[in-house]
Write a structure and sequence with these properties.
Mean pLDDT: 76
Number of domains: 2
Distance between the termini: 124 Å
CATH superfamily of the largest domain: RlpA-like domain
Strand order of the largest sheet: 3-7-4-6-5-8
Largest sheet: 6 strands, mixed, barrel
CATH architecture of the largest domain: Beta Barrel
Strand content: 15-25%
Number of helices: 5
CATH topology of the largest domain: Barwin-like endoglucanases
Structural class: alpha+beta
Helix content: 25-40%
CATH class of the largest domain: Mainly Beta
Low-confidence stretches: 67-72
Order of helices and strands: HHEEHEEEHEEHE
Amino acid sequence: MPKEKNLIKTKVVESQIPKINIKKRRGRKKPETEFKSIRKLLVSIIILLAILLVFESAQIFLQFKNLTRQSLQRPVYVVDSQPIDLDAYLREYFINKVPNKTMYVTVTAYSSTKDQTDGNPYLTAIGTQVRDGIVAANFLPIGTVVRFPDKFGEKIFVVEDRMHEKYGLQVDIWISNQDEAKEFGIQYLKMEIF
């Protein structure tokens, strides 16, 4: 019986202690509707920007697609108000010129086949059509005029194309016939640079 008295006393003592309601303090509650409207506005702006980006990308793509379909022709050069054949003009101009530099380089030949070019096999790196008198070289600026006197005499070549980056001091001459290009092989020739 003494145990029961102790239990009753503890129950009484516990019941006499006032209960304190402790709640975690939280910051001011902001209205969720304000956040929802801002969130909806931001999402709609992002969606609008994405749609505009898609339309702009499509427009740019279509412009370049149409450019590649058009046959890009060599520009017509005019001297003294008369259109001229650039190759003939270059031959005449450089016939008596002294070259700025002479060097020996490895010379190969290529033709307009898909396995020898990157994109369109009939266009050079600057967008002109391939033709006789075009060379590809990475170490010379585009538009540089060169000559191979030991092999081609006074014939003038213009750098309008590029080669794969692994080729350093090498020049690639464009030849229309693939068999002739293979027959040309690899030659070590004297090159005059103007």
